[in-house]
Each structure stands twice: as C-alpha cells, then as structure tokens.
C-alpha cells in the first residue's frame, strides 16, 4: 500500500521527532548529572561521558534544524512514498508519526517500548 506525502511534510515530521528526541536527551543528561553528583560527591568522574551525551544532543538538534529548514525550500509538488521507509522503523508509534498516521508526540509522551523497559527495570530493582 502506497502512502505518498509531500517531501516538505516528511522533512517537517522528521525534524519534529529529532527535536523532541534532543529535548528528551537533555532531560536525561540532567538526570544522569544529578545521579553522578550524588554518587561520586563532586560528579567529576564521568564528565567526559556527560560531554558525549551533550554532543549527541547537539547533533540531533542540528539535524532537526537542518531537515526543518530543508522542508521550507522544496517544491510543494514533490511527493514521496514513505511506506517502505516507515516499514524499517522498529518503534511502531514513531513509524506511525513519520507516516502521518498519527500526530507527533507531545513532551513527556513515550512509546510503549519505553514503558516496558522501565517497568522491567523497576521489577529487577525490587
């Protein structure tokens, strides 16, 4: 089944997903920093690792801005079938958002796989 979308919309959806991922990484970075500070006293032991997380976040933010800007400069008539591309995305909710079958997530929303991960981690900790 073909699912053709305007290229500008495809780029915009990808840019939104990247932006939300960057924001989630920023929240994770802060939480890891706080945990490291509590566990090591001064938090200086893993500053290199935090810098790596920050570089990943900045890269994702940069890609978001790049693809978002590209979307403003493509011909509105350019259409692409996203069916095959979305079929290789392992997170169903993400694939649905990229394919236009559902709206982009809001801050704090998560895919089901994240919920199961944290539920199993909580069970293991208790």
Descriptive account of the structure:
The protein has 126 residues and is mainly α. The protein has one domain (4-125). It is 68% helix and 5% strand. It has 5 helices and 2 strands. The protein has helices spanning 7-40, 47-71, 83-87, 92-99, 112-125, and strands at residues 4-6, 79-81. A two-stranded antiparallel ribbon has the order 1-2. The longest helix is centred in the first third of the chain and has 34 residues, at 7-40. Mean pLDDT is 79; it is low at 106-126.
Key terms for this structure?
126 residues; 5 helices; mainly alpha; 5% strand; 68% helix
Summary?
With 126 residues, the chain is mainly alpha-helical.
Radius of gyration: 18 Å
Name the assembly state: single chain
End-to-end span in angstroms? 46 Å
**Biggest sheet, open or closed, and with what strands and sense?**
2 strands, antiparallel
Query: Which structural category do the helix and sheet elements fall into?
Result: mainly alpha
Helix content: 55-70%
Describe the global form.
elongated
**Uncertain spans:** 106-126
Q: How do the strands line up in the largest sheet?
A: 1-2
Number of helices: 5
From N to C, what is the helix and strand string? Answer: EHHEHHH
- Number of self-contained structural domains: 1
Total beta strands: 2
Bin the strand percentage: under 5%
- Report mean pLDDT, rounded to a whole number: 79
């Amino acid at each position: 089944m073909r699912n053709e979308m305007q290229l500008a919309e495809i780029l915009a959806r990808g840019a939104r997903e990247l932006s939300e991922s960057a924001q989630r990484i920023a929240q994770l970075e802060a939480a890891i920093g706080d945990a490291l500070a509590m566990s090591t006293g001064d938090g200086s032991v893993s500053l290199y690792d935090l810098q790596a997380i920050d570089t990943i976040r900045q890269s994702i933010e940069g890609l978001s801005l790049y693809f978002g800007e590209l979307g403003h400069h493509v011909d509105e008539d350019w259409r692409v079938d996203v069916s095959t591309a979305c079929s290789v995305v392992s997170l169903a909710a993400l694939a649905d958002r990229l394919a236009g079958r559902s709206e982009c997530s809001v801050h704090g929303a998560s895919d089901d796989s994240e919920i199961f991960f944290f539920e199993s981690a909580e069970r293991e900790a208790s």
